[in-house]
């Protein structure tokens, strides 16, 4: 299972990368705005800064919603660095753009996926990654994890090569459940990755070991 971090914050990306378990970075226009990054030039420079931190792939999202605009933006994003994966929304024009990018050898991440039908379309178009948003489904009382299970099953039925990238994770159990269900990738905030470290018995056990060692070595 691959771990991607879902942020545009350079310090968080560095921290996750230094942990040695990071396989990629996903961003979106809201995450870029949260960091105060605006304007095509600054946005592209920020993507380059992310690519320079990690030896891993970096999803960069197009803003255009028409085919020609997506192709123009996607090509420009792909030129920033070999690590860039072009993130394209799950809309009619997006599917056409994914098909085009796939024929040009440009990797894509189909984003804003909320149904198995959308997942089938994206795989047929040749998306490299598919991002079902499980937290946002949970938010409206649909089980996001059920969708992951359904998509993993469908992709296995047909040997689709599109990787299931579970997105919009809110907590560590989302991540663990995605692992059980066979998601290829998870993308989540830093606190979800570092949250995996925590167990009170680990803390208690380590405190005991150190205390015993100190006593014996007085
Ligand atoms: C995925 O690529 C998205 O950037 C992200 O996971 C959205 O998560 P949110 O629902 O927490 O905004």
From TrEMBL:
<dbReference type="GO" id="GO:0016832">
    <property type="term" value="F:aldehyde-lyase activity"/>
</dbReference>
<keyword id="KW-0963">Cytoplasm</keyword>
<feature type="active site" description="Schiff-base intermediate with substrate">
    <location>
        <position position="87"/>
    </location>
</feature>
<dbReference type="InterPro" id="IPR022999">
    <property type="entry name" value="Transaldolase_3B"/>
</dbReference>
<keyword id="KW-0808">Transferase</keyword>
<dbReference type="InterPro" id="IPR033919">
    <property type="entry name" value="TSA/FSA_arc/bac"/>
</dbReference>
<dbReference type="InterPro" id="IPR001585">
    <property type="entry name" value="TAL/FSA"/>
</dbReference>
<comment type="function">
    <text>Transaldolase is important for the balance of metabolites in the pentose-phosphate pathway.</text>
</comment>
<dbReference type="GO" id="GO:0042182">
    <property type="term" value="P:ketone catabolic process"/>
</dbReference>
<keyword id="KW-0704">Schiff base</keyword>
<dbReference type="InterPro" id="IPR004731">
    <property type="entry name" value="Transaldolase_3B/F6P_aldolase"/>
</dbReference>
<dbReference type="GO" id="GO:0004801">
    <property type="term" value="F:transaldolase activity"/>
</dbReference>
<protein>
    <recommendedName>
        <fullName>Probable transaldolase</fullName>
        <ecNumber>2.2.1.2</ecNumber>
    </recommendedName>
</protein>
<keyword id="KW-0570">Pentose shunt</keyword>
<dbReference type="Pfam" id="PF00923">
    <property type="entry name" value="TAL_FSA"/>
</dbReference>
<dbReference type="GO" id="GO:0005737">
    <property type="term" value="C:cytoplasm"/>
</dbReference>
<comment type="similarity">
    <text>Belongs to the transaldolase family. Type 3B subfamily.</text>
</comment>
<dbReference type="GO" id="GO:0006098">
    <property type="term" value="P:pentose-phosphate shunt"/>
</dbReference>
<dbReference type="InterPro" id="IPR013785">
    <property type="entry name" value="Aldolase_TIM"/>
</dbReference>
<dbReference type="InterPro" id="IPR018225">
    <property type="entry name" value="Transaldolase_AS"/>
</dbReference>
<dbReference type="GO" id="GO:0005975">
    <property type="term" value="P:carbohydrate metabolic process"/>
</dbReference>
<comment type="pathway">
    <text>Carbohydrate degradation; pentose phosphate pathway; D-glyceraldehyde 3-phosphate and beta-D-fructose 6-phosphate from D-ribose 5-phosphate and D-xylulose 5-phosphate (non-oxidative stage): step 2/3.</text>
</comment>
